Structures are given as C-alpha cells and as structure tokens.
What we know:
Number of helices: 7
Shape: globular
Order of helices and strands: EEHEEEHHHEEHHH
CATH architecture of the largest domain: 2-Layer Sandwich
Mean pLDDT: 85
Structural class: alpha+beta
CATH topology of the largest domain: Alpha-Beta Plaits
Amino acid sequence: MMTIKLKIDKQDIEVPEGTTILEAARMLGIRIPTLCHHEALKPYGACRICLVEVRAGTARASTLVASCVFPVRQGLEVTTDSDEIREVRAGLLELLLARCPGSRQIRELAGEFGVHETPYTPRDHLCILCGLCVRVCDEIVGARAIDFSFRGQALDVKPPLLTPAGTCIACGTCTTVCPTEAVKLEEIARVPYGHAVSETHPGERCRVCGTHPTKPEFPANYDDWFPK
C-alpha cells in the first residue's frame, strides 16, 4: 500500500493512502473537535467543526477543509489551530448555540472557543442534525428505522413517511452515538410501535450482533422496562 508523507502542525507523519487528515492528526495525538464524526461510520462532513487549513506544495494560500472527509496528499501542510480556524469555528458554534441553547455539550464546546452567547434568536432544540443516529441505524444496525424528513429550517429526524417504523429493533444504538443526548432510550421505548414490534409484523435482527429473536417479546407496559 502506498504511503503519504505530510506535515500536521509542523510534525512529520507518514500514513497509508486514503487516510483522512482527522485520522492522521489523531495518530499524532492532535485533537480536532468533531460533532458529526464517529470512527465506526463513514465520514459525513456535516458539522464543519473539524475545519483545518491545508496548503499543498508551493501554494502560497491555504484553504479551509473538513478534516474528517479530506484524504491526505503527498507533501500537504496542515494547520489545525489558527486565528482563522478559531474564528470560523466560533461562528459555527454561535449558530449551534442558538439552535441548542439547552445542550450541555454544545455550551462546553462553544466555551472552548470563547462563545458564551449568540447573536441569533435562540431555538429550543437538542438535535443538531449531525446525522449520526440516522447513519448508525443504516450502516451498523441495518434497520433504517429513521431518516431525515422535510427540508430547510424544517429538517428533522423522523421515521420514514412519518410513520413508526416496524423495522426498529429497539437496540438503542442511536442513543449511544448522539453527541447532544437528543435521543434517549427511555423516550424511544415509549413510542407505541415506533420502537417495538407489533404482533403482525415480523421483527428484524441486528446485522451486527444478530441476537434479537424473530419476534421479540416487548412488555405491554414500557414503564416496567425503563423504570423512572
């Protein structure tokens, strides 16, 4: 396999072809903040918090790219922390802070970049539309029980056709990858047939663990399953 030589924050590193800048930086112990990235899933590049500066060869100007989706190139010079990067990240976090003012994770990350308030009108969301729950349900579990619905400002994560999905196996994987705790297993389990399987609909198996029976026996009272 061909290897690529590059510099990240003036540190030399040689990595296999196809490695992303984010992966290479983590090999050097360099932290690049992310919200929509997970090692078990395909790179997505939605949140843009992982932006870095890259300069190729003799080029004088640098370019901002999303490190989670940008593959390394021979002779690339990468800067992961600069005034421009911090300014752009702060601007993105102002938007996220307006969307999710109640999210502890967003407030903490925003605080790292000096953002403690936002000039935009606050909303009352926890979901940042990073797509992690949608992607893990598709790529890992294989159930495809949730997806993006609507467009623009109305974009949201819902079951397909806004109808509770019988393909959901109530594994809770979506809750484990959510960066803002917008998805909670207790709430999911109480959605009638949204995350349980009806008597007439065959249950699905997780394609990773495969441990769910064909027809899981869910308790009639979900409070017995998730006591308060």
